Amino acid sequence: FRGKLETLLPFLSGSRSSKTFKPKKNIPEGSHQYELLKHAEATLGSGNLRQAVMLPEGEDLNEWIAVNTVDFFNQINMLYGTITEFCTESSCPVMSAGPRYEYHWADGTNIKKPIKCSAPKYIDYLMTWVQDQLDDETLFPSKIGVPFPKNFMSVAKTILKRLFRVYAHIYHQHFDSVMRLQEEAHLNTSFKHFIFFVQEFSLIDRRELAPLHELIEKLGSKDR
């Protein structure tokens, strides 16, 4: 599945050659998390996404969520990287997902009071913030035997909630560009995988998913 995407993307993106928006986050080869990622990729290849997101038998839930969160960051990074030239200060002066949903940025440390900013600025803040969380060994330990912190689940939920907003923005504001690049199948598969995953473990509040409610219903009904 992922191998196919990697070979397709340079072709689809022309001279951009699968540029990611931020540096890709790699899971160290040979680690248990790397094995989990390989398991996830193998089950994704079966085409049954509902089954692919389930916690593998005997595995730690935190670790499974950590591995998948890194993978979604990389996927969204790549998807957004292909449309950055269409998402500009002038085309997207506010970070929105359709006329009813607008997002203001705050990270609780550097920017405590939510600020209104353009979509490219917001997504830059968001992806940089996610990257910082993923690189923090106390939050996302990559070494075997190092325990996950007590607040891991709430951090993971915040990351996924924010990553969802990038999908929502792409679907609402840039789907025509995605179609022109013939990347809609890639976007839809990635988003479906993401939604099935967050639904399986109740990681994002339904209200947060409202901007793409109809699409989520459609994706779910096809799999019942």
From TrEMBL:
GO terms for molecular function: kinase activity. It comes from the Eukaryota. Keywords: Kinase, Metal-binding, Transferase, Zinc. The keyword Kinase applies. The keyword Cytoplasm does not apply. Zn(2+) binds at C87, C92, H169, H174. PANTHER family: MPS ONE BINDER KINASE ACTIVATOR-LIKE MOB (PTHR22599). This is MOB1A kinase. It comes from Poecile atricapillus (Black-capped chickadee).
